[in-house]
Amino acid sequence: MQGPARCQLYLVAPANLPEDFATILAGVLEAAEIACLRLPPRLGMERLVRLAQGRGTAVVIEGDPELAATLGADGVHLPDLKTYGAARGRLGHDAIIGVSCGRSRHDAMETGEAGADYVAIAADLELVRWWAELMLVPVVAEIEGLDQAAEFAAAGAEFIALGEALWRDPAGAAAAVRNLLILLR
User: Fold this and answer.
1) How much is the pTM?
2) pLDDT class for 4, splitting at 50, 70, 90?
3) CA 173, CA 185: separation in Å to the nearest integer?
């Protein structure tokens, strides 16, 4: 019998990228294996998309399937299920399409039934545990602080979404990711 799958890291880039973000991102990608990077929807992000994809990291664009296609990203992250059908139609069945479900079991179940590749759930440990025990669609736990990562991984999250807390860590994002990996082992 096989044990639980290893939790993977999913990065959420800041909405307002600093000028040196490519350098910061390169350091993080060098420090750890990153499963997915979510980028804000703006033109001119080709360099970041290629940088991440060159390291084996999938890239999704926040909320804009058309831009995801234009940039050559791997898919899109939607704020809710309303535009899922249009996004799937535009990007095709090979694209990654994930949906934010907040703290709603109902929204998460509808998202899974619609065929999304993952559901993103707010930092609700009980909801993540429930989803991981009952559902097959991978769950991304949108944690608020890096200190929550081990607890959510133990609850069954397939992915831990690291956002502002990672990018603002006083030690730097690359060091924060290395320290986090130690906790997740």
Assistant:
1) 0.95
2) very low
3) 19
Q: What is the mean pLDDT of the chain?
A: 95
- d(C-alpha 95, C-alpha 87), whole Å: 9
User: Which is nearest to 34 in space by CA: 174, 183, 185?
Assistant: 174
pLDDT digits (tens, 9 = 90+) for 94-107: 999 999 999 999 99
Dig out the tokens for 176 from the structure: 């924060």
Question: 176-179 — which CB contacts under 8 Å span 24+ positions?
Answer: 176/146, 177/9, 177/28, 177/31, 177/32, 177/34, 178/31, 178/32, 179/146
Domains of the chain: 8-184 (3.20.20.70)
Q: What is the pLDDT of residues 14-24, one digit of tens each?
A: 999 999 999 99
Strand partners, 77: 62, 98
139 contacts 131 by C-beta, under 8 angstroms: yes
